[in-house]
Every structure is written in C-alpha cells, then in structure tokens.
Design a protein that fits this description.
By secondary structure, this protein is an alpha/beta fold. It is built from 6 helices and 10 strands. It is 31% helix and 29% strand.
C-alpha cells in the first residue's frame, strides 16, 4: 500500500473527521484521524500492519513495542508479520512517562522497533523511546500509521510512517476555532 492508498482508507472508512478537536497532545485541530475506525476492521488493520512490517523488516528487530492503546494492536500484528514478539508500554503512575507491566521487559542490546498509530507531537513515541533506552535495548526504527506533523517531528532513529500529512494544530490559547467560539470535541485516550 502506498501513501495515497493509506490516506484513501482514512477517507473511505470515515476515519478522517473535520470540526474542532482537542487532540491527545492537548493541541487543537480542525481535522482528526480516528485510527480506531480503521483498527476495528481486522481486514483493514492487518493490511496496514503487513505494509508496516514490510517497511520495518530490513531493520532486524527482535521485538516490537507499542504504546497503549492503538499501539497494542499495531505492535501485535506487525510482530506477527515479522515473526517476533510484541509488548506494549502503559502510562506510568500519575500518567507520567511509560512503563512496562505484566512481566514485560527488554534485554540490554535487544533490537527493538517502536510502532504507533497517529503522530502529532510524538509524545507517546518519545515516552517509549525513554523507556526502551532505560533498559539498554537498541532502537532500530520507528513505524507509524500516519504522521500528521508532515515531518515536523524528528527522531534519532529511522522513522518510517505509512503516510504523512501536514495537518495544522494549535496550542489552545492560539486556536482560531476557540476564538470563533466553535464547540470543542475531545477524542483520544488522554484526558486534559
């Protein structure tokens, strides 16, 4: 699947929403990519994850790590295609950072790819990077379904999004939609 096909999936499935949204990052935007509209359909999700696995395969990962919640589904299916294990990182106590629970851990030098669903500021990915580095594991790359920053967020590792768009977002105090008094909708898992 190429970028146009990925973006078309968002449109055709109704996963591309317009309005006034408070993103998981806390920023506001006039577009929202509801990845769970795609991920709830196993046939679509597995096509996306197979494509991601094909892009990540040359990196030689031994483990795929994803942040909760969408990252769990993606990590599991990408790992299935790569023939390696998958684990996921959950929010730490008080919602700060990420931690492994449920007996998950990594070994020093273990090759890891990190995967996630939709990137705006990269907060979830940066939290997982810090966690993985804390174990001394080796991050060999990062996969993403959709980079909505248009490449504005950069990492010190190969970054392989399936699609990239430049979806504008604003800090709440600079949001033109707030200034117009448009109702705000909050989606996503982090509540502010």
């Amino acid at each position: 699947m190429n970028q146009q096909q990925i973006l078309q999936l968002f449109k055709e499935s109704g996963a591309l929403l317009t309005g006034h949204f408070k993103l998981t990052s806390g920023r506001h935007s006039d577009v929202y990519y509801e990845k769970f509209t795609l991920l709830k359909n196993p046939a679509v999700a597995t096509r996306l994850c197979q494509t991601m696995a094909e892009k990540l395969a040359p990196l030689g990962a031994q483990t795929v790590v994803g942040p909760t919640t969408g990252g769990i589904i993606i990590a599991y299916d990408v790992a299935r295609y790569l023939g390696v294990e998958s684990i996921y990182a959950e929010p730490g106590d008080g919602g700060s950072g990420r931690v492994f629970k449920r007996g998950f851990s990594l070994e020093r030098g273990q090759k890891v790819v990190i995967v996630d669903d939709v990137l705006t500021t990269g907060r979830s990915i940066f939290e997982v990077i810090d966690l993985v580095k804390g174990y001394g594991a080796q991050i060999v790359g990062i996969g993403e379904l959709l980079d909505r920053s248009g490449g504005a967020v950069s990492f010190d590792y190969p970054f392989l999004p399936l699609a990239s768009v430049n979806a504008v977002s604003w800090e709440p105090e600079k949001c033109p939609l707030c200034a117009k008094g448009e109702p705000l909708t909050q989606r996503g898992s982090r509540q502010f």
